[in-house]
Amino acid sequence: MTVRALLVAIVFSVIPLRLHAETLVTALSTERVSIESNFTGSGVVIFGTVERDRQTVARAEPYEIVVTLTGPLRSMVARRKERVAGIWINRASSELPRVPSFLAIATTAPMVDVAGNRVRAGQGLGFDMLPTRGLPDALPPIRTEYDAAFLRLMQKQGLFKLNEGSVEFLSSQLFRAPIELPANVPIGWYTATVYLFSGGVLLAKTTQDFSILKGGFEQTITNLAHREPALYGLATVIVACLTGWLAGVAFRKD
Amino acid sequence: MDLYLPIAEMPMNLFLLLGMGAAVGFLSGMFGVGGGFLLTPLLIFSGISPAVAVASVSSQIVANSTSGVLAYLRKKTVDLKLGLFLTLSGIIGSAIGVWVYGALRGIGQLDVVIALSYVAFLGTIGMLMVVEAVRAILAKQRGTPLPVRRPGQHSWIAGLPLRVRFHRSRLYISALPVIALGASIGFLGALLGIGGGFIMVPALIYLLKVPTTIVIGTTLLQTLGTMAFTTFMQSATNQTVDVILGLALMVGGVVGAQFGARVGQSLRGETLRLLLGLLVLSVGLRFAVDLVARPDELYSISRLGGG
Questions:
Q1: Would you call B231 and A240 a contact, using CB atoms and an 8 Å cutoff?
Q2: B299 CB within 8 Å of a chain A CB
Q3: Which of A12, A88, A212, A252 lies at 20 to 30 Å from A74 by C-alpha?
Q4: pTM of the model
Q5: How far apart are alpha carbons A101 and A215 in whole angstroms?
């Protein structure tokens, strides 16, 4: 009896959720950004639709979309300069384990209107909620001055960017989110995450991977530099000697 | 036109790179120095990471000194034996320098060591050059010739044990100061991304009393050997040599050097040394100001383990 009651309770608790369920279908404009010798930055567009089944009731609150593009995770160190004997040198430092090397956030509305702090903290969503010391938490992360400096400097370098209102709905369900990739974009695997919110509640979330890689010639040089460093060094020295010799011959007066 | 630099992982304007190479090449042709002490800071100020800047400039110095050495070899003003001694000791110094470079980068003190070294070396050498050149100019105006070097007149440094005969320089001096000089310059070259010509030239003239005609060709030979080794070492251990960046700087540099050399020949020796001294001194001052002035941003971030 009790087991059946429990089952019934579960079924009924699930049905209302099913009625409200929206799903996200997203696609990237490109799966691979190739960096060629004339690369000065690029862009990627994330498209998506909010799929609703027939039973889905219309919501009072509009849909809000947040798109994040996260670059490869890297361990960083932040250092603080202090005056010692009249000169400014790096003294104290703090490590930030596995933080994104790139993070672009695009939204349909100001971040604070999309979702409350607690919801965003649980997802690690937004620069103020980005976990710099491990996994996302239900509480806003504690920020040291080093964490703050990291976030400030990454934004200054254009590697962290928040674009509120840049995601646009093309119809009531179809949206597009253009994201700029600056010239100094780090190389590696990226994850595009799309969050669907309504009334401050997270309804759905999708993730998609894509890569930013160097083009043929650039990649060949990089591969050579990393896989055959001695050969690469030797080749560089020979190229340098040849350039010098050629210049000497070309400009020789006698 | 922007050019993407595969190892630096950033684009840079090709004409800016060629221009910087040419400007520094012009000065180096004019003064007979490598110009690395100008080019490396210029690249760092343009946003290239110090690791890549220092390592790539060494390849540019190889190209510049190659054409220089060939020209001086034709004129037969190179002391091959002295150059070999300096190069071999320079290679040892360079190996230590590459290692220290990596270690300092790991603990986050590389920038301050580079800046302090620039202040110390550029300040001292610049000051010495300016004082010496002004004295020479004043002496010339008064008509009192400066004492000229007589053969056989050596400083106490050259009289240390382990004497070696250098025929071309007409010297019979201890090998110890030669090795010490070569090693320190190789060390500084790897650490600071400089050829070290601006230290080597006065050191050979004033400390070892090498004839002035031989000095530049021999210094260039040492620079070529040491920097070729440094380029190889930086590639093999730190993998920070950007061949595209190096090539752009080389092309600009070798062309600029030809024009610089022509201007240099038309200027008087003392004037040339005074100008070079002032240039060296001002780069040193620039670094000193940065060290002492309160920075706008107290914090800096870098990848753990360097980069």
A1: yes
A2: yes
A3: A88
A4: 0.74
A5: 20
